[in-house]
Amino acid sequence: MSDVAVATNLAEEAVAALRGQIRGELIKPGDPQYEQARKVYNAMIDKRPALILHCADVADVISAVNFARDQHLTVAVRGGSHNGPGFGTVDDGLVIDLSQMRGIRVDPVDKTVRVEGGCVWGAVDHATHPFGLAVPSGFLSTTGVGGLTLGGGIGYLSRKYGLSLDNLLSADIVLADGRFVTASPTENADLFWAVRGGGGNFGVVTSFLFKGSPVHTVYGGPIIWPMEVAADLIHFWQDLILSAPEDLNGWFAFITVPPVAPFPEQYHLKKMCAIVWCYTGKLEDGEAAFKPIRQFSPPAIDFAGPIPFPALQSMFDGLYPAGLQWYWRADFFDRFNDKAIDLHAKYGAQLPTMHSTMHIYPINAAAHRPGAQDTAWGYRKANFSQVMVGVDPDPANNQRMIAWAKDYWTALHPYSLGGGYVNMIMDEGEAGVKSAYGDNYARLAQVKAKYDPTNFFHVNQNIKPAVT
Ligand SMILES: Cc1cc2nc3c(=O)[nH]c(=O)nc-3n(C[C@H](O)[C@H](O)[C@H](O)COP(=O)(O)OP(=O)(O)OC[C@H]3O[C@@H](n4cnc5c(N)ncnc54)[C@H](O)[C@@H]3O)c2cc1C
């Protein structure tokens, strides 16, 4: 018997039969590629799957799902592998890795973008930019389209064009029974509702059809202030963002200035506060739009100006390569009162490592247009999504940065709306998932019972099938 068959009691003939069906690469423990293939973005996650299939196409995904079901193997689905708790991998199971399925087709006439299930956002930006189009995504270009869209999708364009999932027109999905279906407003509408926020609970999405929106060069980038103005800056920024035109977006961050160019040397390794801006209005209006921001208090560092959207989107990729230790905690907020802002100033000044950070993302304006029940994303009244992120290359610092993230989150949580963004929580169990979905959880459980009654897809922020 082969290593994998011995390790997992898999029938060798079944593995050989799978190999005969697929075009992609099947990797098992002991193969030279295995150690690299089993890694996910968060180096805190260290799992050893029985098999990893780099699917070449939809047929491979169907074969993989049928194989895992017949062999009673646990399945993890991997898009961009950025998931914090590491749901893109699993011990002793089968990883359906979509990273080779990265075709993109832009239709400049219909202004739509067809994206295969394993693409990362940088590839989408690359494909759409020459057509003067963009799909709302996140704040880094290396994140997967799959996980980010299925859980929400908060980014530079949220205030102008909504969340990523608000721009989804349809999705092709391989279900737990191996069937291939399309979910859209007119086909399997209940499934279409659920995948817009319900994560990977319902099947493997092999391709997404998005609406593209007109975006090319924007006025944006980070503006950085000394830590001393943190509380005043949050007050100023909050009021601004709650009433700003939809063209203006800016997320707040506590940062440690990296000790590299182009950051001026006198600020290297200083803890500071930043707002990273994206203004999608007319470029010639950019300076005027930023005048009150620059007048609030003189910035220490000002990198805002005209920038192609893909450059803004990938600006922080180099700072956060794969292979760092990650731990995060999240909550939604209506607004931050004086007490909450004081707590932010206190914990922001205690960032435990150079990469650790705290972000507050605006999710008002266009992201408020759909109703709370229109998609599975239920927090349409929230104005802000907040995340405390402990990050460091060295596992020796894990305890310290996890303690900081937990203490900070615990201090702010009483001021929150009660749940956190499903894509930015760790493995916090059923309670975490339920609070992330709020009133939409019960309906999600019904749809889960219809499309995945055995909870075959459970390596995710799991929605348990409703008992009928
Ligand atoms: C550095 C970094 C930056 C981030 N920035 C942002 C941001 O700006 N905005 C934001 O909203 N979020 C952001 N996130 C959070 C991100 O949305 C989640 O981590 C998300 O889970 C990543 O998706 P992925 O495809 O890369 O991850 P994966 O680990 O591959 O998958 C995540 C989950 O989605 C499922 N999944 C992925 N693809 C598919 C598919 N095609 N079909 C079915 N299920 C699938 C997986 O099974 C898993 O449960 C960021 C995360 C990181 C680590």
Walk me through the structure.
With 468 residues, this protein is an alpha+beta fold. It has helices at residues 3-8, 12-21, 34-37, 58-70, 121-128, 145-151, 158-161, 189-195, 230-243, 286-296, 309-313, 338-348, 398-412, 429-437, 441-451; strands at 25-27, 51-54, 75-78, 94-97, 104-107, 112-116, 133-134, 168-174, 180-183, 204-211, 213-214, 217-226, 248-256, 271-279, 301-302, 305-308, 325-333, 357-362, 384-392. The strands form 4 sheets. Strands 12, 13, 14, 15, 16, 17, 18 and 19 form an 8-stranded antiparallel β-sheet that branches. It is globular, with a radius of gyration of 22 Å. The model has no long low-confidence stretch (mean pLDDT 96). Bound molecules: flavin-adenine dinucleotide.
Give the SSE layout.
Elements: H1 3-8, H2 12-21, E1 25-27, H3 34-37, E2 51-54, H4 58-70, E3 75-78, E4 94-97, E5 104-107, E6 112-116, H5 121-128, E7 133-134, H6 145-151, H7 158-161, E8 168-174, E9 180-183, H8 189-195, E10 204-211, E11 213-214, E12 217-226, H9 230-243, E13 248-256, E14 271-279, H10 286-296, E15 301-302, E16 305-308, H11 309-313, E17 325-333, H12 338-348, E18 357-362, E19 384-392, H13 398-412, H14 429-437, H15 441-451
Parallel strand pairs: 2-4, 3-4
Antiparallel strand pairs: 1-2, 5-6, 6-10, 7-11, 8-9, 8-10, 12-14, 12-15, 12-16, 13-14, 13-18, 17-19, 18-19
